[in-house]
Request: fold
Amino acid sequence: MVAATQANQGRFLGIQLGDFGLFATLLLSFSLGFLAFFATCFVSILGILIYNSGGHSVNFADSYRYIALPVGLTVLAISLILLLGLWLRRKLSNN
Reply:
């Protein structure tokens, strides 16, 4: 019986993702989106800094608008779909 319930749960790097509740699922999804946004923003600001040191003139706000925001929203959407899907599958299979 334990093996059957563990087979229905998703795993990522050995972590069972199907055991989280709704609040934890939403919290994880939004934190992944924020983490992707800030990490991408940091890397893109460094990239623009290096690019501007070569004599070009790119506004640093472009790193937020055109690079970090789309990446953060994409990661948020994908994590919401995957984690809420796992949560719904667990809830519907238990009932």
In short: The CA atoms of residues 42 and 63 lie 9 Å apart. Helices lie at 2-7, 22-53, 61-94. Strands lie at 11-12, 15-16.
